[in-house]
Write a sequence for this structure.
């Protein structure tokens, strides 16, 4: 039996009344805003850091793109996957044509450093940065995300150079 919007709203209301979902969501968004600020402050000339997209409780992300990829009309998305409670990093195109072009380039190569997306629909490459993040140790979490992001960006820029 298909769930109705009305029933979903009733369930949503119950969860909101419990209070843990809004508190967790707010904490995640605040962490992402702080992470974005960290990248802006640490890499003011190296990366173009875009606006935080909060999403529909499916994913929240912001772009952190080196200037060399920007000229190729590519972006790096730092993504928090709400369903899987993990941080991911995505290589995406500025538009669908650019995305398809680079997806075809990677699919047609023997490059296997990261898994290439099954389709060019949402991304070219998606990679898990941190599975089961520990929000109780935010400094260590930020350090891990930063290091893994820099590694991913270096690997991508090296192959596209």
């Amino acid at each position: 039996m298909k769930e109705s919007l009305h029933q979903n709203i009733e369930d949503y209301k119950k969860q909101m009344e419990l209070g843990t979902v809004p508190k967790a969501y707010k904490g995640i968004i605040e962490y992402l805003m702080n992470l974005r600020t960290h990248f802006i402050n640490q890499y003011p000339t190296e990366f173009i850091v875009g606006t935080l997209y909060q999403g529909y409780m499916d994913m929240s992300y912001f772009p952190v793109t080196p200037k060399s990829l920007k000229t190729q009309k590519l972006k790096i998305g730092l993504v928090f996957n709400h369903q899987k409670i993990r941080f991911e990093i995505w290589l995406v195109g500025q538009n669908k044509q650019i995305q398809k072009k680079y997806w075809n380039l990677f699919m047609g190569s023997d490059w296997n450093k990261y898994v290439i997306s099954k389709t060019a629909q949402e991304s070219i490459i998606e990679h898990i940065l941190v599975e089961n993040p520990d929000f109780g140790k935010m400094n260590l979490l930020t350090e891990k995300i930063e290091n893994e992001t820099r590694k991913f960006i270096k690997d991508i820029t090296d192959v596209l150079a």
About this structure: The chain has a mean pLDDT of 93. The CA atoms of residues 15 and 66 lie 40 Å apart. The first strand starts at residue 47 and ends at 49. The radius of gyration is 17 Å.
